[in-house]
Amino acid sequence: MGSFVRLILGVPGAVIVTGGLFLFMAGMIRSDLRLEEEKSAVSINITQQLDDSDINNANREFKRPTLDAPPPPPPAVNDPSNRPALDGVSAQIPEINADLNIGSGFNPDRDAQPLVRIPPQYPERCMSRAAASESVLVQFDVTPDGQTTNIEAVDSTNSCLNRAAIRSVERWKYQPKIVDNTAEWRRGVQTVITFELSDG
């Protein structure tokens, strides 16, 4: 019952409010409210106007520059007393009393030089008691043919490596010692051979 009463009272109220809004909007449309007229846009011209010039007039006004006259040539001197003396200075060449032997500037003498050095192989039997780095001091002679001979291990940090060091030096090749263009023996050559264990 209450909802029926609300329906009867609410419908006429809604019609009145809607009609009032409609009339208000119609009045607004018919009124003389006008928007401000748009202002005219400002025109900005950024291009420079070039004045056409008459090419023929420009050519008429052009004047070639005048070149300066070249300077006059220097005066000729015909007086023979003005010439310098060309006799020069006479002097004696000094004598040097010295017996100098400067040689040819090339000395062919040389000591034995290594050509091929094959590194040694680490023996497996020595790896168990070897340190990370071992060395062997080897002494040998070089023949006139460049071969190594009389090889011996003088000192070593591990005597197990002496034989491997000697075998390595046996395969080395040298340029022989040269004295007066003749190959000679080079005795007592010493070198240190290092053995290093790889981590792998």
TrEMBL record:
<keyword id="KW-0472">Membrane</keyword>
<keyword id="KW-0813">Transport</keyword>
<feature type="domain" description="TonB C-terminal">
    <location>
        <begin position="107"/>
        <end position="200"/>
    </location>
</feature>
<dbReference type="GO" id="GO:0055085">
    <property type="term" value="P:transmembrane transport"/>
</dbReference>
<keyword id="KW-0812">Transmembrane</keyword>
<dbReference type="InterPro" id="IPR037682">
    <property type="entry name" value="TonB_C"/>
</dbReference>
<dbReference type="GO" id="GO:0031992">
    <property type="term" value="F:energy transducer activity"/>
</dbReference>
<feature type="compositionally biased region" description="Pro residues">
    <location>
        <begin position="68"/>
        <end position="77"/>
    </location>
</feature>
<protein>
    <recommendedName>
        <fullName>TonB C-terminal domain-containing protein</fullName>
    </recommendedName>
</protein>
<dbReference type="GO" id="GO:0015031">
    <property type="term" value="P:protein transport"/>
</dbReference>
<dbReference type="Pfam" id="PF03544">
    <property type="entry name" value="TonB_C"/>
</dbReference>
<feature type="region of interest" description="Disordered">
    <location>
        <begin position="62"/>
        <end position="87"/>
    </location>
</feature>
<keyword id="KW-1003">Cell membrane</keyword>
<keyword id="KW-0997">Cell inner membrane</keyword>
<comment type="similarity">
    <text>Belongs to the TonB family.</text>
</comment>
<keyword id="KW-1133">Transmembrane helix</keyword>
<keyword id="KW-0653">Protein transport</keyword>
<dbReference type="InterPro" id="IPR006260">
    <property type="entry name" value="TonB/TolA_C"/>
</dbReference>
<dbReference type="GO" id="GO:0098797">
    <property type="term" value="C:plasma membrane protein complex"/>
</dbReference>
<dbReference type="InterPro" id="IPR051045">
    <property type="entry name" value="TonB-dependent_transducer"/>
</dbReference>
<feature type="transmembrane region" description="Helical">
    <location>
        <begin position="6"/>
        <end position="29"/>
    </location>
</feature>
